[in-house]
Amino acid sequence: MAACCFATGALALASAPGSSLRACLTSQTTRGAAQCAQTAQHSSRSGVRCSAAAGGPPRATAGQAEQRNYRVALITGGNTGIGFETAKALLQQDYYVVLGCRSQERGEAARAKLRELVPGARGIELAVFDLADLASVRAWALRAQDFGLPLDLLVNNAGVMACPQQATKDGFEYQLGVNHLGHFLLTNMLLPLLSTPDRSARIVNVASSAHYFGHINFNDLQSATNYDPWRAYGQAKLANVLFTYELARRLSPAANCTANTLHPGVVNTELARYLLPDKPAFWQTPLLEVTKLFALTPEQGAQTSIHVASSPEAEGLSGKYFDKCRPVSSSKESYDLDVSRKLWEVSAELRVKKESPAPKSFTAEAPPSDAGADGSSPCLGRPQARAALFCKLLSLVNGRSGVRLAVVEALAGLLNGGVAPSLPAGDADAQPLSALAAFLQGVGAAVGHDGAQQTAAAALAAAGVEAPGLSAAEHALLTDGQSVSAGTAALAVQAGKLLLSVANTVAALSAEALQADIKALDAECLEAQPHKGALEVGEEIRGLLEGSRQVNGRKAGVGSLPALNRAPQVHGAVLEALNAAAAPAKAELAAAALPAAKDGRPQQAGSPSLAAGLLLLATALLKAARLSLKRSSAIAARLPAVAAAAAAAGGDAVAAAAPAEDAAPLAATLQAAATAAADAVDAGKRQAAEASSKLALAEEEDSPPSLAAAQAAYSAVAALQQALAVEALAGVTSLRLQEGKPADGGAMAAAAAAAAANGSDAGGKKKDKKKDKGAAAGVLLGKGTAQLRSYLEHAAAGGDPSASGDAADGDLAASLRCLSLEGGGAAVQAGLAGVAAALDPEGHAVAQQLAALRAIIEANQARRKPKIAKGARDFQPDQMAIREVAFAKITGVFKRHGAVSIDTPVFELRETLMGKYGEDSKLIYDLADQGGEILSLRYDLTVPFARFVALHGVGNIKRYHIAKVYRRDQPQMARGRYREFFQCDFDIAGSYPTMVPDAEVLKVLVEILDDLQLGEYEVKLNHRRLLDAMLDIAGVPPQKFRPICSAIDKLDKEPWEVVRAEMVEEKGLPGAVADRIGEFVVLRGRPMELLEKLTEAMHPLALHAESSAALEELRLLFGFLQSLGALGPITFDLSLARGLDYYTGVIYEAVLKGANVGSIAAGGRYDKLVGMFSGKEVPAVGVSIGIERVFAIMEAQLRAKAEEAGGTIRETETEVLVASIGGGMQSRRMQVAADLWAAGLKAEFGYKAAPKMPDQLGYALKQGIPYIVLFGESEVEEGVVKVKDLDAGSEEVVPLAELVARLQALVKTKADRRIVYHQREEAGKA
């Protein structure tokens, strides 16, 4: 039973290099099944088993732990009470703390409070799971395993006490389930992450002195008869102690992990909520208050937990019970070995039995005569078979299948025993799953590590597994689902991810071997490419080539090569295909097995999305393989020329290469290898095409050919690996020829010594490096590709790739001569096998090499020329000065109208934003790291405002909001279109008389544009209901109103012909209907005049009910605007559409006449937006100022004015410069400046101890500072200063006591200075 308990834990994975702790806690991936299969495959070789007798599960690789200098703790119940105080103390000790809690909301509150209490805490994360729901515990623990969560401390602190009789979600007695079974499962699943020989770990179980009166009643473990809350609590706490002692015995010394338990004392925490359930209310309060008098505070109660968890005194102690921070004796029953062992076995059995309860009766069906496949049928590979085993086991553990525990144990035993059943390949999963079911009945065959076949009976016996037999229902359950496809898919996706990184690195090496021009890989060239991954791939290749002199501008090179230039696009497509295939694969891995329906029909319908995603992946991988082979051919074709060039260069024996004719056989051998790889690619294409055809022809009721698609993707992975091996070998061979063959170890050492001795001549002068620059300098590769080359050369030479740092090894030098034409074709074939093995994605060496290369890329990034993200801007001081002026004017208008200011988060729940922007929803930025929530950056300020009103129950409000918003748009910087930009919003929400708030909003817009003085403008205005009526009259179907509105909205950017074509060709509108729309959208004019025309008796809009009502609203609005003096700039324009879905009434847009910058402000009425969040409609209307375009216009106007005047824009608002003549005046300048600051004057003083007068005057003129306060020794003695007016060129003497008053009067005449006139600087110098 213990083996089953640990089954999932035994397959825990190594840490993902570079993965963050947050990702460990919140992400899911297909990586699990793939590496689980590999880990299980290797476990039996090393003799590691996951049974209790073997000391627990094997440890997870501590890749992350080796790189961190802090410890990570998981505390269940860490959001309150003792757990919260324990977390606080550990944070103060620089732990990274994970709070295990049931409620996301309460966990977030606790995290926020801890951050306040422990400023600068290293990190606090949440692990949301419910100990009363084993499925949620298992799901979180699997994610932690999958990412190799670095864990040094587990504090099982959560619990309940003396609660009324109730059951957990799994049907267990609540106290036993929460206090013991939930922690039992969590601990066992996290053991692989805690058992790390290179770093000590601790497990702390918080028990209670109540265990002294506890007793384990195996006859009624669930306290079903005569339930007593205190008796059940004592039993649960005794179970905590027994579990701790048994765990300590089972942990091997190699695990480097201890387990202890403790009594925290009588503590006043939330546990007391069930203390007096049967007492009346007037008894409970005073009794609880009396209890508080002798109870410990949570902080006091946590001291023993903190001591056991982190004190040096507890280091190395295991199997102890602590009270008041010291080991003491526990109850007599707690030391009963038979009880503790039985409790362990029963706990493990209960954990699975509740998920898969035994049937009331079991009738085994007769085993089949064979496994459903003959010996000639193709079978799945060993990794695929083991991945299928794991996925089927996972589906059984996830669900309530009704399968017997013996079946689950048998599957776990097969994995732990290293067994790989022989499973026939097919289009769908039915055939291999039938073979798996037959294997569990003792029929079939298995494949050993060496590929040898053995009978099912022999394999089961060797693994110590008894064939459980199957009932008809169990057989139906095991043969249902897509576990085999999911397992192969997981292997293909994981291997594909590794090979994609390999492809990028090998392409970089090929660029150097070809001495190619790679300017096409620059970021500027890739930004317009269609694949999102192209930029990422290009950046990775450039990072590997950092420091290389083998690329760009080499005369002997191939120049620009399409097979290299297209790498970012092709590899980017692989990245997208991997993501597309991973999503349905993850869904299959999370699927729960379902028993057959009453009529015997299976209930698990396979999704065709898995097959579709895998076929897309197969196609992308094969394209990458074909591109790799084109680079290989280009390298091989150049080898004779490379050899000839190396021979012509001449030099010593070390540098000389073979003659050109000797390179021809080598090139032919490489071309032959490339041809063989191309045949594998072609075979993969045929396999993918066949699977694609089967998917297209499959009927809806048929099982999708998911396994055929998974096999195609798996074969494509193998083809890509073969192609990359050929390319890698060709690349290192070419580079070896360019550099010259290596000598033996002695010769190399002698050459190195001679080079050192010849560093200077007899006269002590250094050798002329320029003369010997090309003699034997070799090739200068990029920092990443140099390491890759060394790794591949060791692999090609038959050495250990992990020892690639020792390039001067004599044996290696001898072996490497095969790469410089001395070994012939046989040596090349041997080298190819070595390189292929080094690039095997199922091995460990390539992952370690890629991690090292990733570190080089990241290190190189710090030295590259910095650049700003596309669609964003930095602002210089003079630009910020202009922005501040604009903000001040806009805010002044808002406040003048009585608006209040609010703020909302820069990100919102994605569901808040989606469905509000029509076709523009695709421009929303989604966040990758979402902390358990799906989040997006805000697209505008209106939708967050509507959410704000709905959430807080706001009534009437007039608000303004100035903040940044984000849109994943194609930037047009010249036209003021950015991805990050400010919006200035003014909105009125609530119930008001019709059109009154609309009129004030438009008045605010007009006032702002007048105050900003941007130039002549107009405000185009329309009504959404009027627009809908136009479309209805024209004959547009209602379901196309919004798409057609989006097309009409482009009329300010595109001519009518282009918009009409979009309506007809893209939106599917009949041409006559589009032409009818065109008759309406050309109508525009002065508001009152056009209104009168549209309301004429026979006008179509006057006859339509919706438009007639809209026209009456507009008549009212125009009257109000006339009263407010704001009607002048308004233009009634029926082409104005505003593409956002949430508008319901008046819409408007402001544009500058004669300026090609688009709209500078827009808005409208949105009466239904708030109701989308609260169900209660709140009318609202608002306007948003396109402040970025306003800034651009203001900046252009001010720069033109400054240029005309021969000046520049001021960066500061300094009014006075405090200057001095002579030394020793620093303190005096500070005192004067402080007096000016205290009076509200804007002043500066020089930092130099004895500044020169020309420097001080020059600074004042450059910054446009109007006044200088100047003094020297004589002025100090007289108690006066000189005040210089730089504009007027005048000077006056002012008593120091009167200086502040005089300057306050003077600076009033210099308000709003925005330009520095440099003519004054010239005058000052004169």
From TrEMBL:
InterPro entries for the chain: aa-tRNA-synth_II, aa-tRNA-synth_II/BPL/LPL, Anticodon-bd, Anticodon-bd_dom_sf, Aromatic_Lyase, Fumarase/histidase_N, His-tRNA-ligase, HisRS-like_core
Any one GO molecular function term: ATP binding
Annotated CDD domains: HisRS-like_core, HisRS_anticodon, retinol-DH_like_SDR_c_like
PROSITE patterns: AA_TRNA_LIGASE_II
GO cellular component terms given for this protein: cytosol; mitochondrion
Presence of the UniProt keyword Aminoacyl-tRNA synthetase in the record: yes
EC number: 6.1.1.21
Family affiliation: Belongs to the PAL/histidase family.
Name this protein carries in UniProt: Histidine--tRNA ligase, cytoplasmic
